[in-house]
């Protein structure tokens, strides 16, 4: 069914975007030696948003 196929594609793209976002966060944290303030600035997001994303993606 075309509708099911389109829905599966959207879900797959969403997961791919989430993986890219997580990878960017991890790289920014590594670049700044775990300093969230600088990682958030680098990513163009607030520290609060970064903290929420770290919890959401279970980044250690």
How does this model look, in words?
- By secondary structure, the protein is mainly alpha-helical.
- It has a single domain, classed as Arc Repressor Mutant, subunit A (Orthogonal Bundle), CATH 1.10.10.
- The chain contains three helices and no strands.
- The protein has helices at residues 2-31, 36-43, 47-56.
- Helix 1 packs across helix 2.
- The chain is elongated and about 50 Å long.
Q: Notable features of this structure?
A:
single chain; 60 residues; mainly alpha; Arc Repressor Mutant, subunit A; 3 helices; elongated
Short characterization:
The chain has helices spanning 2-31, 36-43, 47-56. It has 60 residues and is mostly helical. The model has no long low-confidence stretch (mean pLDDT 92).
The helical percent reads over 70%
CATH architecture title: Orthogonal Bundle
Tell me, briefly, the overall form. Answer: elongated
- Please compute the radius of gyration using only Cα atoms: 15 Å
User: What is the name of the CATH class?
Assistant: Mainly Alpha
Number of strands: 0
**Cα distance spanning the termini:** 41 Å
Based on secondary structure, the structural category is mainly alpha
Order of helices and strands: HHH
Number of domains: 1
- The total of helices stands at 3
Provide the residue-averaged pLDDT: 92
Most strands sheet: none
Uncertain spans: none
CATH topology: Arc Repressor Mutant, subunit A
- How large is the share of residues in beta strands? under 5%
């Amino acid at each position: 069914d075309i509708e099911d196929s389109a829905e599966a594609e959207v879900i797959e793209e969403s997961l791919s975007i989430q993986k890219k976002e997580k990878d960017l966060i991890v790289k920014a944290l590594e670049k700044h030696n775990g300093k969230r303030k600088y990682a958030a600035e680098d990513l163009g997001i607030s520290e609060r948003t970064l903290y929420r994303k770290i919890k959401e993606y279970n980044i250690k």
